Amino acid sequence: MSQPLILMYHQVDRPRSKREHRFCTPPDEFNYQMAWLIESGYTAVGLNDMVSYVSNNGDLPDKAVHITFDDGFIGVLEHAFPALKKHGIPATLFALSGRTGATNDWMWQRGFPQRPLLSREQLRMLAEEGMVIGSHTRTHAKLTEISIDQAKSEIVDSKKELEDIIGKEVAHFAYPYGLFNSTVRDLIEHAGYSSACSTRSGFNRIGEDKYLLRRIDVFGTDRLWQFRQKLRFGVNEATRLKPLAYYANRIVSKLGMG
User: Fold this and answer.
1) Which CATH superfamily hosts domain 5-257?
2) Residues 6+ apart with CB under 8 A from 27
3) What does DSSP assign to residue 213?
4) What is d(CA 169, CA 228) in angstroms, rounded to the nearest whole number?
5) How many CB atoms lie within 10 A of CB 46?
6) Which residues, listed in sequence order, are joined to residue 217 by a DSSP beta bridge?
7) CB atoms < 10 A from the CB of 252, how many?
8) Domain residue spans in the chain?
9) Facing residues of 251 across strands?
10) pLDDT at site 252
11) pLDDT of res. 98
12) Exposure string (b/e) for 51-83, b if CB count within 10 Å is 16 or more?
């Protein structure tokens, strides 16, 4: 059975603080992870392929994986993109249409280091080089905590603004902070997006709601064993005891069936 995975990154850069490190994967580690995926038999596929699969309109190879980036940090261009290009790995970047060329104000106001976001020209260049650009709203809004009209504007206007920037359709969305409810989910669909990515962990199997696609959160602090475990079990948190618990549950299950 195919167990397709979508991986979620934020920054690919050298972390400037201990607190930031969780959301900031060092470039050497990212390159190593991408190389490990290919060497370990994973097949990098496009997000459209994932959407077709969960909608039962297409097949995927075993160990299919897609790479995504939230927010649009400049490190994606400077550090992640060269590694992706080197290994032939497609990716999707979810950008903030109202923050192009600005900084991560929603983070540095909470004590994180200030970081630059991609400019309009840089987004356009990445799109021309083959990276898929999706929407992450206009301003990194908490969609479940604002009015429906405000949420609709964040969702609809960001799509149009990004399409104007890159000259291509923006078909995919990612929920800021992973926040959604049924109303927000329906706004995404009605706005004309083909899919939306959540922060819920797990594999994306046939029948999964394409507006609530699951992703594995890759932390900048993850060591290789943690990265491997997250992919093996489809989880956001890796622990030394996870494999023991998994196989113990399988044994119990088999004994129960007997």
Assistant:
1) Glycoside hydrolase/deacetylase (3.20.20.370)
2) 12, 13, 14, 75, 79, 80, 83
3) B
4) 34
5) 14
6) 8
7) 10
8) 5-257
9) none
10) 43
11) 98
12) bbbbeeeeebeebbbbbbbbbbbbbbbebbbeb
Are the beta carbons of 113 and 136 closer than 8 angstroms? no
Rounded-to-integer distance, Cα 94 and Cα 101, Å: 15
Q: Is 98 exposed, middle or buried (0-12, 13-18, 19+ CB in 10 A)?
A: middle
Q: Which two tokens stand for residue 148?
A: 């429906």
* Helix 242-257 × helix 224-233 angle, to 10°: 30
**Could you tell me if 103 and 44 are in contact, meaning their C-beta atoms sit under 8 angstroms apart?**
no
Do the Cβ atoms of 87 and 38 come closer than 8 Å? yes
Give strand pairing partners of 69.
9, 93
Q: Are 172 and 132 in contact, with CB atoms under 8 Å apart? A: yes
Cβ atoms of 15 and 220 within 8 Å: the answer is yes
Q: Using the CB atoms, write b or e for 151-179: b if 16+ within 10 Å.
A: bbbbbbbbbebbbebbeeebbbbbbbeee
The C-alpha atoms of residue 102 and residue 95 are separated, in whole angstroms, by 12
> How far is 72 from 99, CA to CA, in rounded Å?
9
Query: For the chain (length 258 residues), average pLDDT per consecutive 10?
Result: 91 97 98 97 97 95 97 98 98 98 95 97 98 98 98 98 98 98 98 98 97 98 96 91 50 50
